[in-house]
């Protein structure tokens, strides 16, 4: 059983590391779910700046956040 747990933790750590790298360590939380039955499948989403963001929408979220920052930036 220990071999399984060690391998599982290794795979889990790799998935989290890749997910954090994808968002350049900007996520507050990462939610990953995976299935390994007759096929391997996974998906993930993030909590970034208080918002839930699916992996395929990360770039849109950052672009929207950047645009809002530029629009609402107070004048000096």
Description:
The chain has one domain (2-71). Helices cover 46% and strands 28% of the residues. The protein is built from 2 helices and 3 strands, in the order αβββα. It has helices at 2-22, 58-71; strands spanning 29-36, 40-48, 51-54. It has a 3-stranded antiparallel β-sheet, with helices on one face. β1 (29-36) and β2 form a beta hairpin. The mean pLDDT is 89.
Briefly, what is this?
The chain has helices at 2-22, 58-71, and strands spanning 29-36, 40-48, 51-54. It has 76 residues and is of the alpha+beta class.
First-residue to last-residue Cα separation:
62 Å
Report the sheet with the most strands, covering strand number, pairing sense and barrel closure: 3 strands, antiparallel
Number of helical segments?
A: 2
- The averaged pLDDT comes out at 89
> Which sequence of SSEs, written as H and E, runs from N to C?
HEEEH
Q: What is the gyration radius calculated from CA atoms? A: 17 Å
Which secondary-structure class do the elements indicate? alpha+beta
Q: Portion of residues in helices? A: 40-55%
- Give the strand order, joined by hyphens, for the main sheet: 1-2-3
| Unreliable segments of 5+ consecutive residues | none
Percentage beta strand? 25-35%
Count of distinct structural domains: 1
Q: In terms of topology, how is this protein built?
A:
Elements: H1 2-22, E1 29-36, E2 40-48, E3 51-54, H2 58-71
Antiparallel strand pairs: 1-2, 2-3
Organism: Streptococcus infantis X
Protein name: Conserved domain protein
